């Protein structure tokens, strides 16, 4: 019977008592169902969220540059998107295709392949990093901060077991002559200077994968590289990190391929 008909003829029709408790339970159930409804974010909304969380350009005095793995970024974003709506692989793909970050999916895949290679070859190859900081006009505090960031990057992104540093050194100096009379540095989580690196290479029971940052991270003299590689026979690879991807050069390339040597 409609409510309108009851209101027109109240003497003929009577309202039956309602079970208010049952009605309340029904309302509560409907209310609960309403609040559990979740609309998945669109594909465009996720990169926009990441861009708002992580600025692509450092803000002086507020933010610092750190390398985050795909898992780190996914964990960060997941705090804002519940129920594992976005998988780590999907997030990496969307970010690389969005255009807001300075890499492509191929570049990202390149770094992932490198990290997989390092992990799978740890029994036979020791991955060590080398950080070179030239003698520039920057304050020492600034230069030391940059070196510490590079050490962190070497270990977190490039998976170096040990990182060695040459501070206030010319990139054109002979590698073997560096830090002969240098006092110990005070950097975070580093393993020594150039002479300590040479000792590590000489005494290592495993082959060496040497990692540097950009073309001038070891030397700017191609003949210097060739000499250093030829004298240290355990060095099998030189890995160059250029930000959004890595380049891996074999021992043969560094000794025989003039085109590759001329990159440095």
Automatic annotation (TrEMBL):
Lineage: superkingdom: Eukaryota
Protein name: Uncharacterized protein
